[in-house]
Amino acid sequence: MLQIFNNHINKYKQTLISINKQSKILQKYSDKKLKEQTQILKIKLENNNLNTNTILIDAFAVIKEAIFRALNLTLFDVQLLGGIILNNNSIAEMKTGEGKTLVALLPAYLNALTGQGVQIITVNDYLATRDANIANKVFSYLNIKIGLITQQTNFHDRQKQYTQNITYITNSELGFDYLKDNMAIHKNNIIQRNFHYAIIDEVDSILIDEARTPLIISGIGDTNDKPYIQAQNISKVLINKIDYKVEEKSKNIILTEKGISKCERILRIKNLYDAKSRWIKYILNAIKAKELFLRNRDYIIQNNQIIIVDEFTGRIMEGRRWSDGIHQSIEAKENIKIEAENKTLASITYQNLFLLYNKLAGMTGTAKTEENEFLNIYKMNVITIPTNKKCIRKDLSDLVYKDEYNKWQSVANECLDMYKIGRPTLIGTTSIQKSELLSEMLKKMKVPHNLLNARPENVLKEAQTILQAGQKGAITISTNMAGRGTDIILGGNAEKTTELIIEKYKSQQQNQCIMNNEIKELLTTSEIKFLQSTNITKERMHDKDCIENYNKLTTIYFKVLNKYKKIFEQKKKEILDLGGLYVIGTERHESRRIDNQLRGRAGRQGDRGTSRFFLSLQDNLFRVFGGSKIENLINSLNIDDTTPIESILLTRSLNSAQKKVEAYFYDIRKQLYEYDEVIHNQRKAIYNERKKVLNSTFTRDCILEYAEYTIEEMLTIYITKNQDKNTLVSLIKLLNIKDNIEKLSTMNLYEIQHYLNEQLRISYDLKEIYLEQLRPGLIRQLEKYYLLQQIDQAWQEHIDKMNLLKEYIGWRSYGQQDPLIEYKNEAFHLFINMIIYIRQTVIYLIMRSRLIIDI
Ligand code: ADP
């Protein structure tokens, strides 16, 4: 197998040989001795300055053996190689079905030996739970503790899970915990530990697809639904192309002169763009809601709420809301209760969140097309790992139709043909609406099929649908949901089917379901009895008192598994004779990467398979980005509407249009990243200051430091304003020191500063003594309270200002200056002002705290 490795990878050949040699030696070890290796390796690592490369071979060999003992699977060389790449801060591109879940265990173990936590990031709770269960089995052989955090994990448990050696968690839980930690009022409420090493599964989905929407924690703001409703009514009378233009590419609306005066007339205002009224924003949002946000494509309505459908995964995003008033405008459009506009309390983009880690790695089936982005922004290389068995999938050339109608007709006909011959077919669609359109067509043609999209009733059947998708004659229509994390196995999935059967017959007294004859014949009478009476759960399988039962259950499991393996193997052969899984794409996506994901469903682990895209010139991507070139080309070909075009020239044009889209969105993400980097550096500074306060047991120093800075800053103003007495008056007032201004103004700058610092300390000592008498320890609590309260409040206001600034710079950027530089400059001033403001208000409040106590 080694000869298939390309040059880049050849350099690890020797390492792989050594790992395999070492793991052979370990095969002879008892379980106890294998477990002891963890401690031995920890010591070895410590003696080598925690350089993980020095024990990589030993650690990987240990894991390989543990995986074998726990799961009865022998890691392939390509998996070991993936592990090495992940330990090198890189992205391992490995196709679906190549066993990435196990690959992650290699570097996770190695890095966990340093004593610092390792986090494995997945895209959803289901995958986190599934992978943590597998890891638990393996690591029970190695004395390594596995943590798991999902939406359901409560606060206290969360804290504990983070301290385990390796923790499985989704990207959004990790991000929200980070933001919440930085809003904590007490240090016991902090739950995360250092950001040491993270392995991101489906790394392109998290760092690229999700990079455009920041994570936001928001508080309730003001509600005033009237302007939304009024703007919505106005948008109904405005006419596209006359009153406004829609720029689909940038998702923007531009009002024409006609449109502007129409709005002004209806609203009876003189200037729609008057900065004081926010009408322009309401109107533009209402038109956006009308033209750009479509029901059943961008969102669905569930329980009288607008629920966003993720454009990349096709899944619903429960609880997420579009910002800047868009969500409210859509609520107005759909005549649903308008929720209050939210105020951002804290936010971060995934880009900057993951850059907090000392060491970052990722794995996915599709990353190579975005390798520049990974390198530029995250400093991660993308290394393609060869598949264990050669991929023999046939990617047929695109069929392009003039219009959508004919495209869908051909797709439906193709499904009918495949159904007739029994070849399993997966059809990828880009929206719920389109998936349902095809489903209707197939119903009329009497082609049985399954539908997988974000509608709750279909989501419930997701596992079942995917389980069946590889079976003979299965026609499965899906949105991008089927693109990831799911493995379509030809013939059927023996493991899953076995698990389902065992679960079904366990504790049968309660279920009273009749056992299938095939299973009855397979098992002995005592096995049937045992199965029907046991209620041992997965979680308890490793408990001591359950071991005996566990062993019995395992024997049954393997009996059933082997039976289904045989049945499914036979079915798989039949399907392979038909050509394997057939994947049909119905529209090119925003990037080749997403198309490749869909294609990658077919041809897993060396199976036969085929993929083909059916396109039309009316498809969104080509309409918006194709330009006139493609249309001219088609017209010059002069063919009828029902004949597809398979021309190299056309495919090339389509590819270049798609590359244009990729570049366009990359620019948007890069811009977002560059802008966010500015606020990110400020956020780091503020969060650090906050942490300092939170962890401090003696905040007095912090208060005095703030006061001294304040004195220095105000005295600088005093000097620049030609020793303006008013500044001194304000300063004295702020510090709450009763003093004689005349006396002060006779001193030189140094003397004033020295004098005020001294007075401040005296007055603060007095205050402290007074408060200590009232209630010991109160002053420290007050200090902390004021410090945190003011930092948080000022930071939230600062975020608002920064958002406004960005919007404002956007308007202005038609001029010559580079908007980013302008943004950076102004952001810097805003930040400095905020810091000064925080210090001053803290001092002001603390120096008057006595009044509050007296009340
Ligand atoms: P990926 O995430 O790369 O799509 P998974 O981790 O979901 O792949 O694994 C796909 C399937 O391959 C699983 O059923 C897993 O048990 C199996 N598998 C993984 N590694 C091996 C191996 N070395 N030998 C045999 N089967 C394996």
TrEMBL record:
Which Gene3D superfamilies does the UniProt record give?
A: Helical scaffold and wing domains of SecA (1.10.3060.10), P-loop containing nucleotide triphosphate hydrolases (3.40.50.300), SecA, preprotein cross-linking domain (3.90.1440.10)
Q: What InterPro entries does the record point to?
A: Helicase_ATP-bd, P-loop_NTPase, SecA, SecA_CS, SecA_DEAD, SecA_motor_DEAD, SecA_preprotein_X-link_dom, SecA_SF2_C
- The top EC class is translocase
Q: Name one Pfam family in it.
A: SecA_SW
Q: In this protein, which residues make up the domain named Helicase ATP-binding?
A: 81-239
Q: Which superkingdom heads the taxonomic lineage of this protein's source? A: Eukaryota
What is the membrane topology here? Peripheral membrane protein
Q: Where does ATP bind?
A: 79, 97-101, 487
Q: Does the keyword Coiled coil apply?
A: no
Q: What is its EC number?
A: 7.4.2.8
Question: SMART domains attached here?
Answer: SecA_DEAD, SecA_PP_bind
UniProt keyword Plastid present? yes
Q: Which UniProt keywords apply?
A: ATP-binding, Chloroplast, Membrane, Nucleotide-binding, Plastid, Protein transport, Thylakoid, Translocase, Translocation, Transport
Q: Where in the cell is it found?
A: Membrane; Plastid, Chloroplast stroma; Plastid, Chloroplast thylakoid membrane
Indicate the segments forming the SecA family profile domain, all copies.
1-646
The protein's annotated catalytic reaction(s) are: ATP + H2O + cellular proteinSide 1 = ADP + phosphate + cellular proteinSide 2
Q: Which GO terms describe its molecular function?
A: ATP binding; protein-exporting ATPase activity
Kindly state one GO CC term assigned in the UniProt record.
chloroplast stroma
Q: Which GO terms describe its biological process?
A: intracellular protein transmembrane transport; protein import; protein targeting
Q: Summarize the protein's role.
A: Has a central role in coupling the hydrolysis of ATP to the transfer of proteins across the thylakoid membrane.
Which family is this sequence assigned to? Answer: Belongs to the SecA family.
PANTHER family given in the database record: CHLOROPLAST PROTEIN-TRANSPORTING ATPASE, SECA INNER MEMBRANE COMPONENT OF SEC PROTEIN SECRETION SYSTEM
What's the name of the protein? Protein translocase subunit SecA
Give the originating organism.
Periphykon beckeri
Gene for this protein? secA
